Protein 1
Amino acid sequence: MRLSTAQLGSSSRQLSTSARCFGRRAKIRPVQEALHEDRSTSGRRRDANVTKMDRFQLAPERYAGTKTNIKKPVEIAYFSYDSDHNLLPFSDASLKYYYPVLFNTHHTDRNRPIDLSIGFDTFRNRSDSPDEHLDGLLDTLEQLERRQGSKLDVDVITWRGMMTKILTATYEDQDGFEMNATCFQDTIFVEENHEHKLARNGQQNSFNRRGGPPAEMFQYWGYKFETLSMLPKPWAEVSRDVIEAREQEPVENYSQYCSIVKTGIGSTSLVIGGEVDGVTDYKPEDPEAPPRWIELKTARAPVSPRDRQIHDKKMLKFWAQSFLLNVPKIVIGYRSRDGFLENLEELDTHKIPGLVQQHGQFRWNGNICINATGAFLQFLKATVRGEGVWRIRRAPGRPEIEIFKVADSGVGDIIKPSFLAWRKELSA
Ligand code: A3P
Ligand code: MG
């Protein structure tokens, strides 16, 4: 248990205050205002009302030579979004089953590359402008807690995407990120800062428009590859016609299956929710059984040493994303510059760090990533405590992650009111 009895008291006050006074979407102070009040970080904690900057150093060499324990991620809950993106807690309606795309195999007489652009004009691409906060995750966790009759006892609750950014941060310094965090009833809730995400996506899109296909086409190729490689039901329940009609199947990204796992990195326990692309053959009923998740990715086949470097950095992201949910297999669909699928590669997630260490042009170290993540989570627990909302920020190219307070009270927009109300009901 991290917080003192006094802090627990303030947490339950926070519940009523945030639900009653601030309503759903309490205002978070702008970053500039918070930065204006930036104070030095000489280690000594200051008055909680004074905004200050805490910094976590990312240099990989700091995290070499130790070993951080990982608690095997086990699925504790799951949900589907249907094809209109409605949330279905504890439903596997959108779970997909892997069956390799039909080309260059004995299943088919065709061996020409597949054009991933086909059907782009009918792509149902979900806008990323609504801010979903942690809503789907919290609605499902509320159902889980209602079933159990008790609250989840865990240090951190977040989306897998946030943990991927942390896990890769020692080696990936180009992207940058911003998150919001709040501590509520002994648990730190972390969400992406949506405005920052939209601004970044906007920048990337304008960059991509300078030549070649539009940014949306790159995205389409990824989802098209998924559609070509997945079945809506286990293979034995699907007709050959359905399998062969996958090329004509419209592509959409409204539906998803998300797995919610409990895991531990070092001394920090976590509940992480994230999308999984599908399973090979079936989903085991026993959550402790070896999972059969499969992750699909598209990538340009590296040719030059420079390409190889870019690819090895991509492999860091592929590995991190899959490692966090215990996804054992990744299938990479290699494509040409203009979106023709040329080749498939099946990789065991746990072998990727070793492969990159042996043959890589860009040699990241998976143990260092895990050690740094364990240390960061400890730093997070020491920093985000008591009332308020914090910003977690990595500026592109900077060797550190900064955490600073942006609201002195409430939980910001991070925790939805219905979840706060549920927890109030539970502790009444
Ligand atoms: P690729 O990964 O093959 O590029 P995921 O691999 O995480 O399941 O995501 C599926 C697809 O969503 C990706 O396929 C890509 O097309 C799109 N996608 C994921 N993250 C994205 C991002 N940050 N920006 C744009 N598209 C993204
Ligand atoms: Mg994928």
Note: The longest helix spans residues 305-325.
Protein 2
Amino acid sequence: MNNAQLNELKQRFVANGAASPATQFADRAENALIWDADGNRIIDFAGGIGVLNIGHRHPKVVEAVKAQLDKVMHTCQTVMPYEGYVKVAEKLSQVTPVRGHAKVMLANSGAEALENAVKIARAATGKNNVICFDGGYHGRTFMTMAMNGKVAPYASDFGTMPGNVFRAPYPVPYHGVSEDEAIRGLKMAIKTDANPRDTAAIVLEPVLGEGGFYPAPASFLKAIREICDEHGMLMIVDEVQSGFGRTGKLFAIEHSGVEPDIITMAKSMADGMPISAVVGTDKVMDASGPNSLGGTYTGNPLSCAATLAVLEVFEEEKILEKSMALGDKLAKRFAQWQSDFDCVDNARNMGAMAALDLVSDKAKHTPDADLAAALCKKAREKGLILLSCGLYGNTIRFLMPVTIEDEILEEGLDIVEAALTELVGS
Ligand code: PLP
């Protein structure tokens, strides 16, 4: 079927809240390229929204999933365990920087990992509430929507979970929240609302993802570790978007040397197969009762096989070094754009987790969300998938595979530049 026929089906049968506004349907994909149902070639700078750090259909992952298909596709882990689950648990325990010996539970999505992490923290501390941050994003389940600090388009009228979510400021110096102010804001929230006697955990992204790719300073992360220790709260680090090599380390928190109690991960873990994990210190992870974690599909054999293959690819192909090198290339191009275009303001990257802000007035840093939307639209017309995000919707984020070939990278960046020139002049 072609794009037009598929769009007609979408309109008739897919619920509005689930239907993509995009009109090109993916037909096949390879590394940083996708071909749509009409045969158009498209460069993917979104990487399935951070899922494809090692590219679409990495051959080693495809091979591992095919081999697993020939053995066993499904057995509910609680009824009949299988090798892949325990091997993934062993590997993640070895590579995840939590405090002390780590244990693991697997789930299917990022939001599900967060749901389980909070469930575990509640069981381990006997307390209910959590503290989350302005600009944070953790998913679209009831609990994670209540935790999100990024407003439109994720605002929830659905009510909150049992227990309370308290909010604290995230350090975004560029938007007037210094690191010291953020720490003071957190301490104030603890003093006034989020009584530590009732609060199980502080949950944060070490690099704000949907909120605009702002890395938290190491000293802010260290302060949170100390505050958690002082008040008997757990530190939960959400690495669903920043994890699995995007920042040049397997996990972004490693840049700070801070060891949290729990890390959640998903997205690039299995090169597109659905899986997520909660990894935490053994005492914490073992706190909830028997059969309290998991579900029918959690850690399914195909996704486990893919995860093991991804971890091998990381070692064999030096993915972390590639991530740093890609970040450097992007930073150079951003610097050129900053001097060429009045509308390109702050640019930042931690490894290949890279973004820049578009503004209507550089001196005042006035966010221009309309320009960001127009740029993504124009890029798409020219054969490039580009995404915006951010506290003000004016951030352009770059999530192409770190395995992208140089000439495709350049072609994609040239499209961004040409689209910007058409929109604002040079
Ligand atoms: N946490 C973070 C930091 C995310 O960026 C996301 C998704 O973008 C999620 C959680 C939710 O993950 P999922 O969409 O797989 O539920």
Note: The two ends are 40 Å apart (CA to CA).
